[in-house]
Inverse folding.
């Protein structure tokens, strides 16, 4: 059986106010192409199809078209992540099922859709599905108030163990046993763009929550591609597109898994090549301008190594139109604690006070003072 494991699409994500649906469309089209090229039998999408619980119509259209494209040649199972609206995914289950797509928005018991039994690639498969489970549903409100954080963490851990025990009780020796879940495993490396409040501390569980007889565990939530140290193969596919500059060093892939009863799964990473790169550049405005011919379509975060001045951002963006964020290197920023507070006095003009502020902020630019004088004159 050939399985394609992907997760954390985050369709609808914006970057510094810039929409990225065109990038997502290229990446998801590539994933569909990979599934067809490698003739996969089953596709597992381990949560966070969307970046928000209320995705735009365009974002929903793209996800639906992608799932339908994958379902033309393979069975598709997609679960909700912490960014998705689980009830909305469950509402579309009947329609999706007619197209060969299984959507699971909320955790279910094994006998109520939590354990899928299917045949793919000539092999029988059991797929235990566990969408993201918020702690406030796993642990009652009363317990959250009366217990210590450590006790609540342990309670969440035990809840997941109990749920997975129920879901995987039907695993069989003559079938390929799979788990797909959206959660944080202790020791996992963050990709850089995750929602930390739903990833750390009480949301982290040990890899021992997964059963030894699982042939493969397909995880979503952490955006970095990684294999976890566990008694069975536990993998994060990572995000196929860097969602923020904290993920610029990640190598986007999807995981191609070959599994059969009685043998360990074999996992191959297939690179995603159409994702638009994110890069951070450092230098003076002149040095940055000299790099303009080498950045291509990459989205840029620019750290300027010279003092702040009026028009600095405009100069950077003129040289590097793809610069989405421009900041001053801390080495060239005036320390806030050293800035003198303008001394008061009714006899001091606004221009004097503003000039003193500029001196304390380390801004020496006659254009700023002229602009202030003009605005002051208009107001007066």
């Amino acid at each position: 059986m050939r399985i394609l494991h992907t997760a954390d699409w985050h369709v609808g994500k914006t970057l510094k106010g810039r929409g990225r649906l065109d990038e997502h469309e290229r990446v998801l089209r590539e994933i569909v192409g990979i599934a067809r090229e490698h003739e996969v039998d089953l596709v597992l999408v381990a949560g966070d199809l969307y970046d928000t619980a209320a995705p735009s119509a365009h974002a929903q259209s793209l996800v639906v078209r992608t799932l339908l494209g994958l379902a033309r040649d393979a069975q598709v199972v997609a679960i909700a992540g912490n960014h998705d609206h689980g009830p909305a995914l469950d509402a579309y289950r009947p329609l999706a099922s007619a197209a060969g797509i299984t959507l699971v928005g909320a955790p279910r018991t094994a006998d109520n859709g939590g354990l899928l039994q299917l045949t793919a690639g000539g092999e029988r498969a059991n797929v235990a599905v566990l969408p993201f489970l918020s702690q406030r549903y796993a642990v009652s409100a009363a317990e959250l108030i009366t217990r210590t954080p450590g006790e609540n963490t342990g309670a969440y851990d035990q809840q997941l163990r109990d749920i997975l025990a129920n879901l995987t009780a039907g695993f069989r020796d003559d079938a390929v046993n799979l788990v797909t879940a959206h959660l944080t495993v202790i020791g996992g490396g963050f990709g850089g763009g995750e929602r930390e409040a739903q990833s750390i501390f009480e949301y982290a569980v040990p890899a021992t929550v997964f059963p030894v007889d699982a042939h493969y565990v397909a995880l979503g939530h952490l955006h970095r591609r990684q294999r976890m140290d566990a008694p069975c193969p536990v993998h994060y596919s990572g995000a196929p597109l860097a969602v923020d500059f904290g993920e610029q060093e990640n190598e986007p892939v999807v995981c191609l898994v070959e599994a059969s009863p009685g043998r360990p799964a074999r996992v191959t990473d297939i690179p995603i090549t159409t994702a638009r790169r994110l890069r951070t550049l450092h230098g003076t405005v002149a040095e940055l301008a000299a790099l303009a011919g080498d950045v291509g379509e990459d989205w840029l975060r620019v750290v300027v190594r010279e003092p702040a001045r009026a028009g600095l951002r405009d100069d950077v963006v003129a040289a590097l139109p793809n610069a989405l964020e421009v900041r001053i290197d801390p080495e060239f920023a005036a320390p806030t604690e050293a800035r003198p507070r303008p001394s008061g006095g009714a006899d001091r003009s606004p221009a004097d006070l503003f000039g003193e502020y500029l001196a304390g902020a380390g801004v020496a630019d006659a254009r700023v003072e002229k602009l202030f004088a003009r605005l002051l004159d208009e107001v007066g």
Notes: The chain has two domains: 2-271, 278-379. Confidence is low (pLDDT under 50) at residues 197-201. DSSP finds eleven helices and 19 strands in the chain.
